[in-house]
Amino acid sequence: MILNGIDVSEWQGLINWNTVNTDFCIIRAGYGRSVLQKDKNFEINYSGCKNNAIPCGAYWYSYATTKDDALLEAKACIEAIRNKKFEFPIYYDVEEQRQFSLGKGKVSEIIRTFMDILENAGYWTGLYMSSYYLTNYVDDDIKNRYAIWVANYNVSKPSYNGAYGIWQKSSTGRITGINGDVDLNECYIDYPREIKKAGLNGYEKTESKYVKLSIDDVTYSGELMISED
Q1: Rounded distance, CA 197 to CA 184, Å?
Q2: 206: which DSSP letter?
């Protein structure tokens, strides 16, 4: 399975979502330590996806250089996405050079702080990072536990050798309904199915209920998957 998607922020301007043709979209929710730094087009982009049946996730851009910063960023992100439903993970976008200058241990500590808070709040949580930094600046327990969205352009596949669910393969894509460049992505996991089944990202958990049906003298006994959504 390969799904083709995009990711957007206020930098794409006002998008004509009625004409956008994409399998999914990851929307920037905001950046930094305050909910006041919510992306100015987040609400519009979220509504655009929902109104046009485009499955979506979100990401929060990080400037954190300490655990305390990461904690504040996690709280701001949760506040920004509260009461919304997402079919794709909520990603932590880590790409600032001043973060990487702290070294692998500190970078991993920052990431782990944010991710743990989001996960405990009921979100399917992921990490966005370029192949090089993902390989060299993130502890294995993080890469093995959380959803990975890896960026690597102008290659046939990412240089990152670990498992990943989404590959951001270009920053210069063109999509009807969006003026200028937009990031292009490929997804290899059925996140909407898994997230709804797990009851995360604002969805109620899918429950298995045993039922017995009799239709035209033919009896069926078994489990039906009942969604509470």
Answers
A1: 27
A2: P
Which pair of tokens denotes residue 138?
């993130």
- Residue range 94-121, pLDDT digits in tens: 999 999 999 999 999 999 999 999 999 9
The distance from CA 211 to its chain's CA centroid, rounded to whole angstroms, is 35
Contact 194, 161 (CB under 8 A): no
CA 166 to chain centre: 9
Q: Is 152 left (phi over 0), alpha (psi -120 to 50) or beta?
A: beta
**30 contacts 76 by C-beta, under 8 angstroms:** yes
pTM exceeds 0.85: yes
Write the single-letter amino acid at 215: I
pLDDT digits (tens, 9 = 90+) for 63-94: 999 999 999 999 999 999 999 999 999 999 99
